[in-house]
Amino acid sequence: MFVGAALFFLALLSREYIGDGYRWLPYLTGRDVPGPGGNNHFLTPYLGWGAWRLVQGTGFSSLLASVTERPVALAFFQGLNALLGAAGLVALFLLLHRCGVSRRGAWLGVALTGLSHAYLLHATDMTEPMASVPWMLLAAAVVRRAPESRGSRWLGGALAGLSGAFYLTSIGVCVLLGSMVGLRYLRHRQLGRGVVAVLEVGLVAVGTLLGILLVGRWLSAAPVAVGGHAQSFFELPTGGGLFGHFDPRHLMGAVFGFANAFAPLWDWLGAARLLEAPRAVLAYNLTILALLLAFVVAVGLRLRRAAPMLLRSDRAADLAGALLWTVCTYLVASYWSATYEKLWMGGVVGSTLVLCLLFEGGEPEARESESPVRHWFPLAPVVLLVLISLVAGGVRRRVMPNEDLHVATELSKRLRPSDVAICAGWDEPSSLLTHVVTPSFECWSIVNEMIATRLRPEVFTARLRALVDQARAEHRRVYFFGLLDQSEEEWRRFNGERLKLPYSVLEPYRGQAVVVERLRGKGGAEFTLYQLCDASTPGCPPTASQTSVP
């Protein structure tokens, strides 16, 4: 299974790179231990850095350069995620087997998880959460093997804490672990022992996570900075990130996020702006949503029918834990970001566990008492969803040209080393420009600067003004990329609501800028390059032949 899954993921390595992954490339491939990974993916940068140093030392990186057309480091880290994704599926198979799911059902669960959009996306690209998945699922498998054993509970809790050190939200598997343990004791009317057992799992998990962070902080304070800046959990204000606010309307948006976890939505603008999408996009997204709702209804009906039998079996604890884990993922996504696939990996695994327990768990005689068509038909919606994920997601990302990378490459050719480009920062072209194309000129990121100023607009404004004034004093050219032609509404959606940055912050520059070039990225999105021009600007395009900012 491991070899087959790894080869499958390696064959589908994405050409549409995720920025949260490749932004770490300069640190992962550097000579020094990388800086802090943030408290949401603390150990992941160190794993990547160690793996890269190993392949360089063995000469594998040179071999890789001869077999791939993409940047070698990017291909390596994508491949590392493919191996981690395959290991996660092996751990899932073991978990399903220990939950009493048939071998056929365990293979089904592995296929549904591996082909789901949330899992396939990260197993074929360079992103942070995949390193946590094998530990997370192994923790559940260990606890499920012997939930009454203190040793199993402690080891499972430790593995859950370790998974959280790679990606914080994976510690949510403790919801599943706690249910597996506590509800079994409750079923035998041993409430006190159940509470103690659940506390053991939770305290060991949290203790392991905090212990790893504290050891990292101690190492970073040592004369030899083995741990780099491991104190990031205690010093970086990333606990709430740029997202993280709740509105009751987000609960509806998370329904689309749940659907997106199994099959990718296209150009999703949010539930409130659903009708603004083109008709074809709207029809596709509504089809994905309809299949998800059909899947939920089918599971609900099956659960209602199977409830009497389930309540008499040990599977009730596993099923309740899987449902709770899925619900918790839904609520976290409602708070954080509805279609954030990293969060939804927990929801996908929880849903898979529910499906396998309902359709392929229990005694074989009970499964064989109904016709095959009746037995398998309720699974049709989720099967269609993951097939769409494979075709419209995995295969498409593998074969389609990366238009955003083309935009970044063209910009790198146009600008000179002495130039300054002020970019949005987290949009695909400017992220690729900074971290993959790696031009020699400075690309100043609005998002990164706002994070550095702890979301204080007045400090950001002063830094921007100082940057522009210094560049002009040194007779360097100043560009704005993909910013000045944004409408106030477009600006508000992220820069206003998330970064707390007013639209007027760039007003002093709009009247002095002229259009240099318009480039089209993925999905026909237009990115405009502007240059600040005045009487002292060297090499400024003739204003008569250019279009100034409206």
Write a structural description:
- The structure is a single chain.
- By secondary structure, the chain is mainly α.
- The protein contains 26 helices and five strands.
- It has helices at 2-11, 19-22, 25-28, 44-58, 60-65, 72-98, 103-115, 117-123, 133-145, 150-166, 174-187, 191-221, 232-235, 250-262, 279-311, 315-335, 341-360, 364-368, 372-376, 380-399, 403-414, 428-435, 446-452, 457-473, 488-496, 507-510, and strands at 420-423, 442-445, 478-481, 513-520, 526-532.
- A five-stranded mixed β-sheet has the order 2-1-3-5-4.
- β4 and β5 form a beta hairpin.
- The protein starts with a helix and ends in an 18-residue tail after the last strand.
Features:
550 residues, mainly alpha, five-stranded mixed β-sheet, disordered C terminus
